Amino acid sequence: MEIKLQKFRVLVLCLGIAQCTPPPTRHITPAFYHWQTTLQLDASERVYLDLFQCKKLYIKILDVSKDPASDAIIPLSRLAVYDTAGLGNRILIPVIFITNAVFKDITAAQTDELVAHILAARQDVLRHWPARSGREALQFDCDWTQTTRDAYFIFLQKVKIALPEIELSATIRLHQYKFPAQTGVPPVDRGMLMFYNTGDIDNPAAGNSIFQPAEARKYLVGAPEHYTLPLDLVLPVFSWTLVYRDDDLWKIIPDLPPAELRDTARFQVISRDRFGIRRGTFLAGHYLRPGDVLRQESISPELLREAAQIAATADLATDATVAFFYLDTTILRRYPVQQLQNVCASLTLPVAQK
Amino acid sequence: MRFTYPSGRSKIIQACALTVFLTLTSFFPKPPTPPCNPFARPFSGYTFIRPDIINRNAAYAPFFVQWDDYYDRNYFSRDIQKEENINEWIGRFCDQADPKDVEYIVYKAGFSELASIRTSAVDTKKLTPLPAGLSRNTFAEMLALNGCTEVIDYLIFAKKCEPYVVTNGDGWTQADRDVPTMLQLIEEGRGRFKDTDSHFVKLRYAYQIVRLAHYAGDWKYTVDLYNFLLPKIDRQKASIVFYWMVGHLAGALQQMGQPAEAAYRYSLVFRYCPSKRTQAFRSFKIRNDAEWKATLALCQNDAERATLYVLRAGGSHSHAVEDMQTIYDLDPKNPQLDLLLISDVQQLEKIFLRTRVTDQKHGTVQGMVQREGAATHLLDLQKLISRVLSEGQAANPTLWRALSGYLELLAGDRYAADKSFQRASTLLDKSKTDDQHLAEQIAEWRILMEILNLDPSREYVDQQAFRIRSYEGFKANPDFEYFLQDWLSTAYAAAAHPGKAILAAYPPSALGYNPRLDVLNDLLKAADEPDPVLLETTMEIDTNPDQIRARLLEMKGAFLMSQGEMEAALTTFRKITPIEASKMVRFSPFKEVFDEKVNRPLTDTLLLNRRQIVEQILTYEFKAKAAEAEQNPVAAWYYYLIGLSYYNMSYFGYEWEAMDYYRSGYNWLRLAQGPEFPLRNSPDGNRENIDVSRALSYFERALHGTQSPELAARATFLAARCQQKQWFSQPDTRYRPGSKLIPTLPDNYRTYYDLLISKYAKTEFYGQMVKECKWLEAYGR
What we know:
Helices cover 30% and strands 26% of the residues of chain A. With 354 residues, chain A is of the alpha/beta class. Chain A has an 8-stranded parallel β-barrel. A 5-stranded antiparallel sheet of chain A has the order 12-11-17-14-13, with no helix packed on it. In chain A, helix 3 (108-126) crosses helix 4, helix 7 runs parallel beside helix 8 and helix 8 (301-311) packs parallel to helix 10. With 781 residues, chain B is mostly helical. Chain B is built from 40 helices and 4 strands. In chain B, the strands form 2 sheets. A two-stranded antiparallel ribbon of chain B has the order 1-2. In chain B, strands 3-4 form a two-stranded antiparallel sheet. The longest helix of chain B has 25 residues, at 367-391. Chains A and B meet through helix 1, helix 3 and strand 15 of A and helix 15, helix 16 and helix 20 of B.
């Protein structure tokens, strides 16, 4: 028996020695998401992308949802291409967002129809893009659940059959990354790990819902060592202001400049990131009333760096794309190019050195 | 031996167990089933406001009040634009044409048909007949007989324009606009506009022209055309087409960066044009206070200003008291005030009719927090109503009076509510349909008042609830039954009746998910009452009270067993009458089953009911202690058997059901979060008996007391298994359920595996186990 135990310990020792071999360094390709409904990069965005040497853009071309009244699957927010300046020398990847509701009780015929519609929509948008761009890859963004998993995966398989030559990818939420046995792994070529939305957006008392390091770590602890898809990474650089009314989330105001809330005649500072309303006032198109509470959420450069450090311990591909969500002039002002370059550089380091 | 964890098969076993449990608890009837389940849709709160109290055609109702799909069915499902246009055409022709005929000519007739009508119209001798397909069309006849060539030419032009302004892809794809042709059509239209005498037709040409310019994306041209054409039209007779045109003007102004100008025009469209009201409501946008002031400054009168406040209130969907006060000051008879008032009351009822139990059932913990904030809102609303009623200015005072009563009811002032309902009722004219609807509404609120008046501290409360359930009005609104359950349950809990509180709001199976002694004792007390109303009358139980008592006692005994309180469990079981005891379910927990299954593998000859199991355990304990005192090694065997039974009756054992009424295999995936797990329809979740420390302690006593290596090997193996389960249940466990990898146990959780491997590897038992147990084999390596 003692001999057996010794063998066991030798095996452990061997594994330990094996782990001392330096893991391969990741090669990082920087990228950005474009999530607006109109495509028209302004000069500052183009310059930023050039300085950042960002050669890859994920561009949302369509939202697909379900009409609650008719139960029909409908297209929403189709991308309008106003100007293609600044796109020509980059890899463009169309992204399609589909709500989870679409796949609830979807029939085989509806799936086929959806695939046909989406392929047509993709084709229709691509004709406005620079020649030959956007044809090599396609990404789907859907927060599927256990009940919709099968329908979503069948849909993806059908898209792959229809477009066998392209690289198909899908976004992977953190809970899907942690529990692949329960949530399944989509039948695509690559996954894009969404490293944000870790908090509770509905709870007015909760902290930053975009990213909280402790919450993010929980998703990595206990996750399988190897995710079965090569994983890219998307990190948050967006900000939003959440409006709570009667303690319920009422509105989301994206990219509100902090200066907007400095008018103390209208807004009352509750804490560093929380504001009350002194008198009825319009803000970003919404009429706010006394009693409403605003919570401003953004990702500071330090928090972004920490997010990258935590994300580096995930099972990212050795040729990972690191994308930032999302491209917008006001957002980019907060993040000097050097800052994002440092974030990308930190992800190239092998895990053991972190 | 193979380790098997909850699988499809075991789920079947669990389903069977559940069936057994439900059979056992079948003496508890199901709560009455309402005609339809409101929870089939996402739950947002209870509502007791009937849509009928507002005229369903009330101008802005769909934008402010919410009654599920009421307005989808009665309002948005209609093509109002088409209806209005057809009506204008009919009015233009002295109400002589049939609506279907007008619809055909205006919307469906092809170019050739329109051309043939024109041929007939220009024939002054009226010898050219209409084509056969139109021979019975009254509108075509009128056009032909009256020589209405201007109208027919316009219809032909409109048909030419249609493809360029309508066809824009199917939503998935987008067809490119043919701008050059659209510009050509604008030029053609301008020429026709100039040559047309009829202002009715001129207005329509102007509309087509402005629309073409808008859809061509030339915003400035759109505005210029509007400004050029409109002054040339005599608009003495109101037309909805004018507002269609204003809608396009507003769209162009918005694109040109003139938000106040655009918002003002959208407000006009919203106020005067039902067919474009939805689009105007959606397009109306004020970004900041400066734009709001600029838009207000554009208004020509107080009624227009009131419309802006109505739109502002509609955009925020609640808390419109401030806007309502302003609208009232500007335009006291504004009928939209009724809608805004109801909209706010709809928000408040969802908050104030929410109880602790509602939150438990629907997973919101913020209900009570909302209630505090909403109190101020309710008071503000009451002040406004009081002012409006005292000044006698309301357009519909009876409705305001009745709503005042409903707000008082929500505020808990039931006496005042009763008085308000009485006063409102005296104002009603029962010959009027609207007042009949309001009378029915007040009757519904009175039922709600009866429910809110139920007081469990008084006698006969259950009979009262039973009577309320019999009302037709109660049955008509499915929210009543669920609200009554929540309300009664909350009231019972407040009156120190935790058992009744559960039975009032949940199915009887909820008692077994996470049994509580106070709950079971409360129900046992109720069962001992001479007239157990809740169990028998209100819950419609028609069965032997001994049976009810026996099942509750058995549940209590099983719970005490799970707590290791065997003497207390035995005392409880002894209260069950012999007849009922003979019906108790039987188990076999003393069998050595090393396979990790959660179903009984074999039918054992030694099947014991729960009372007999407890008696057996206590007997073994007695014998073990006696033998121990005499230094007789047989004590170890008794301890081993007790440990075996505790393990087998735990969550991990095949006889889990002896100490638990509900086991979820899913919890295996989240053991570390236990022992209490969330479960829908259970107020306290689901507790699983995952603590195997008691079993472990008996295996340890067996191990230390035995002189037999074989028994020691058995006890060590099962002690190792207990340690393994303890580690699986630790918050920091690294064990991944479902993983095919052999889990590595931390040192402090593998002491008995190490002991088994190092000390008992030569036993016959070990030899058998290592062949069958992959984990043991792996650890042995």
